[in-house]
Amino acid sequence: MSTFKIEGGYSLKGDIEPQGAKNEALQVICAALLTDQDVFIDNIPEIRDVLKLIEILGNLGVKTERLGVGQYRFNASKVNLEFLKSPEYTQQAIGLRGSIMIIGPLLARFGQGFIPQPGGDKIGRRRVDTHFIGLQKLGAEFTFDKENQWYLVSAQKLTGSYMLLDEASVTGTANIVMAAVLAEGITTIYNAACEPYLQQLCKMLVSMGAKISGIGSNLLTIEGVSSLKGCKHRILPDMIEVGSFIGLAAMTASEICIKNVGIEHLGIIPESFRRLGINVAQVGDDLLIKDTDHYEIESYIDGSIMTIADAPWPGLTPDLLSVFLVVATQAKGSVLIHQKMFESRLFFVDKLIDMGAQIILCDPHRATVIGLDRKHSLRATKMVSPDIRAGIALLIAAMSAKGTSLIDNIEQIDRGYENIDGRLNALGAKITRI
Ligand SMILES: CC(=O)N[C@H]1[C@@H](OP(=O)(O)OP(=O)(O)OC[C@H]2O[C@@H](n3ccc(=O)[nH]c3=O)[C@H](O)[C@@H]2O)O[C@H](CO)[C@@H](O)[C@@H]1O
Ligand SMILES: C=C(OP(=O)(O)O)C(=O)O
């Protein structure tokens, strides 16, 4: 277990570029399993979760070649399904959430798929029913091996069908789409998730020869084809990293230019930070965060306290609420942070309270933050990163705090943020990996 030692209280200055999007990378890498031809993917973030997935594909027999920084070639002309039965596979697959998205492609191309209970952040219940109900609608047989916690699907043939998903699951929609592109006939998925991650996956599949309409909406229509060809695909900038950097700039009273953010794919994120009073200026495809000495949270028009809540896209992503929460601690004014999707993602506020932040955890889903308006800094402390996004929020808190803080279990941060210490130190942060 590694630790970050953070000397806080320094403002940062300069330019920073977001990495490629983690959650898109996990989808599009799995899509390489859908063809026996070469798939070239560029702007892959070389972070723990993504590297683990690439390793799983490699062990399945997919030829994976690193052509340059973030550039990979995948060729799944030979896939060794026997690997799925090995203890090594179980060990690797439970290490991350994204591994579940190999199921759809394997089922579509080889008629079977197995996955152990996938891992990922421990941020509440993370059911996978939507995935398997959708695959069953396409004609797959589904078994859950309770004793070993294995999910198994198989099918002689997949047939398109209409389905109304019980929830707009991000990885669930990706899995169903990847199975449906090779099913016979037409599949209609209503209440589909439509995050940029999924839009990108669908665009990539179309470039491979799939027939998908409704991309970007919650109603996808897929006309199955008999095979897919290779393609070249570039991953979008990571919108969660962009949001994390906006929050970091505000909290540390810094002026930062976030370069090449892919503004048209950020949805409501910049505007949500503006509602916290942060000056987020658009300059071409860059975001300039400035005048951060003071920021004041808006109230609703009727004067009542604002709520920042997550919602399926195009609502605000749940993956940024921890950052919104920490940023609010130094704002002027109050805000209710409502994490609707996950019930165990707000417990890290205890640490912020220890550091001097004014927060009331109302229940597992809601926390009220009363901003300090920089009347005093947070106090440095020792903490543990419980999950990837709480981890970055605690890092931001530590960077703004007076004194030296320690964050243990930073592997959680490394799961999603590439060389975060090196990149922030280049802007003037004082973070040491020990
Ligand atoms: C690898 C990956 O891509 N992980 C992301 C993916 O996880 P993942 O695909 O696992 O998350 P899901 O979209 O399936 O669901 C997330 C949570 O929200 C709940 N839910 C979901 C949809 C809905 O309409 N109503 C609802 O309540 C689910 O019950 C679950 O508790 O999407 C999540 C939601 O954006 C993100 O936090 C994760 O970072
Ligand atoms: C929750 C997240 O990741 P995962 O779904 O991989 O656990 C996240 O990226 O914030």
From TrEMBL:
Pathway this chain belongs to: Cell wall biogenesis; peptidoglycan biosynthesis
InterPro entries assigned to the protein according to its UniProt record, in alphabetical order: Enolpyruvate_Tfrase_dom, Enolpyruvate_Tfrase_sf, MurA_subfamily, RNA3'P_cycl/enolpyr_Trfase_a/b, UDP_GlcNAc_COvinyl_MurA
Catalytic activity: phosphoenolpyruvate + UDP-N-acetyl-alpha-D-glucosamine = UDP-N-acetyl-3-O-(1-carboxyvinyl)-alpha-D-glucosamine + phosphate
Localization of this protein: Cytoplasm
Record protein name field: UDP-N-acetylglucosamine 1-carboxyvinyltransferase
Species the sequence originates in: Maribellus luteus
EC supergroup of this enzyme: transferase
Residues annotated as catalytic: D121 (proton donor)
Originating gene: murA
GO biological process, one term: peptidoglycan biosynthetic process
